[in-house]
Design goal:
By secondary structure, the chain is of the alpha+beta class. The protein folds into 2 domains: 2-71, Winged helix-like DNA-binding domain superfamily/Winged helix DNA-binding domain (Arc Repressor Mutant, subunit A); 78-205, Muramoyl-pentapeptide Carboxypeptidase, domain 2. The protein has helices spanning 2-16, 21-28, 32-44, 68-71, 78-93, 95-117, 123-136, 161-166, 169-182, and strands spanning 19-20, 48-53, 61-66, 141-147, 150-155, 187-191, 200-205.
């Protein structure tokens, strides 16, 4: 019941943009105390936020709205649109243009990442920084040391999976980007979600 109530609160905030406790109480038909309990949990999970709005009379009103993390719970169709656009570009301009697009994306990310990764002293620190940057883009990464000279990085999520599944050049570009950012040619993609594996796994060697 609690989970359903919190989902209902998120739905209401998505539709109404912002609501006060009184308004939520009226819509949910539960007590103020119950509403506040759910709001506390949602705030703790960083799914909602609150601001004080001054009133002509009385105390300021606490208004609740979705955070960016809360917004991400609602379905987006970006990936399928991206795939459709890439198909159209391929049909209109050919395979070479697709290659150019992915090359451009690879260079842009490489330049962005290098600024932060090149400051690190050794391979271990560079890979950890790379993983942090990938995490910021939603890849759910994990880094483990394999032996004295090698490390593995696992990506449990692929935010561009639909694109990569159709245009596998995306995977090759990612591997090349890792090599350029970290500064080693010895980066091997051991597992890949587009090949049917559960996740993507890379091994970096000095």
């Amino acid at each position: 019941m609690s989970k359903n109530t919190r989902e209902h609160i998120l739905d209401l905030l998505k539709k109404e943009v912002s609501l006060a406790v009184n308004e939520l109480t009226e819509r949910l038909h539960i007590t103020h105390m119950a509403v506040r309990k759910h709001l506390t949990i949602l705030e703790k999970d960083h799914l909602i936020q609150s601001i004080e709005v001054k009133q002509p009379l009385g105390r300021p009103l606490q208004m609740y709205s979705l955070t960016e993390k809360g917004e991400q719970l609602f379905p987006k169709n970006y990936e399928s649109i991206s795939v459709e656009f890439l198909r159209d570009i391929q049909e209109l301009h050919g395979e070479e243009t697709i290659q150019l697009l992915f090359d451009k994306r690879e260079k842009r990310i490489t330049d962005e990442y290098k600024l932060k990764v090149q400051e690190k002293k050794n391979l271990s620190e560079k890979i950890k920084e790379l993983a942090t940057l990938q995490n910021d883009k939603g890849y759910m990464t994990e880094v483990n040391q394999v032996d004295e000279h090698s490390y593995e990085m696992i990506e449990y999520n692929c935010p561009i999976y639909a694109v990569a599944k159709e245009f596998m050049i995306a995977c090759r570009c990612e591997t090349d980007m890792f090599k350029n950012v970290v500064g080693t040619k010895q980066v091997d993609r051991i597992c890949c979600k587009t090949d049917g594996d559960d996740h993507c796994r890379f091994v970096f060697r000095e």
